[in-house]
Amino acid sequence: MSISLVGLPGSGKTTVGRQLARRLRIPFVDSDHAIEARIGCSIREFFDREGESRFRDIEEEVLDTLSADVNCVLSTGGGAVLRPNNRHHLHSRGKVIYLKSTPEELFRRLRHDVSRPLLQVADPLSRMRELFSVRDPLYRETAHFVLETGRPSVATLVNMIVMQLELSGALPSADV
Ligand SMILES: Nc1ncnc2c1ncn2[C@@H]1O[C@H](COP(=O)(O)OP(=O)(O)OP(=O)(O)O)[C@@H](O)[C@H]1O
Ligand SMILES: O=C(O)C1=C[C@@H](O)[C@@H](O)[C@H](O)C1
Ligand SMILES: [Mg+2]
Fold it and tell me: Do you know which InterPro entries this protein is assigned to (predicted)?
């Protein structure tokens, strides 16, 4: 079974996912990194050159493959839930955790970042609020569990995820 993390840019999918995989001693896979390996350039360059829709097509193909992988932690791109196929594959093939944060907290974390194409706009906080209002229902629909990430450290979030997985029976206690 795969364990996938969904959430807005900056919610900690890569950071928390990497630690979670280490804790469970299973491979960690980041779909953004897999996409970059496939397109041979950064996602930002690809967005500029080919546009978002073409990026989403490639993301859908890559997620179809990665969500079928068993026994790994999969960190997804922030917009992975936009396509119905992705929501369905992630939810039905494993356990999905939504790392939920406020747009204000995410803006604070990413205000100096230049790698996330959707935030390279004049008013990134407003953009983050728009992304939140469109995507929050989609993250909820895709996820089996929702975790508020505002205050807890990365290590605490990992403990909370392991506990949720154990309680749901997805993770035998002996694996922890
Ligand atoms: N729980 C947390 N508390 C404080 N800082 C955090 C937490 N989780 C992540 N961060 C920090 O926020 C930044 C963004 O985290 P990360 O790259 O893991 O987000 P992401 O969800 O993978 O984003 P993207 O969707 O753009 O790939 C990093 O600098 C990371 O160290
Ligand atoms: O929120 C988004 O739509 C994105 C988030 C990143 O993880 C990348 O997948 C890409 O920059 C698009
Ligand atoms: Mg990431």
Answer: P-loop_NTPase, Shikimate/glucono_kinase, Shikimate_kinase/TSH1, Shikimate_kinase_CS
**pTM for this one?**
0.95
What is the rounded average pLDDT for all residues in the chain?
Answer: 93
The position carrying tokens 């406020």 is 102
Mutate to test the pocket of ligand 2, among 39, 43, 54, 74 (most ligand atoms within 8 A of CB): 43
- In this prediction the ipTM stands at 0.95
Q: Is 17 in the pocket of ligand 2 (CB under 6 A)?
A: no
Residue 132 CA to residue 138 CA, distance in Å, equals: 10
Q: Do 72 and 99 touch, CB atoms closer than 8 A?
A: no
For residue 116, report the distance from its CA to the centre of ligand 2, in Å.
Answer: 7
Q: Is the CB of 13 under 6 A from ligand 1?
A: yes
Architecture of domain 2-167: 3-Layer(aba) Sandwich (3.40)
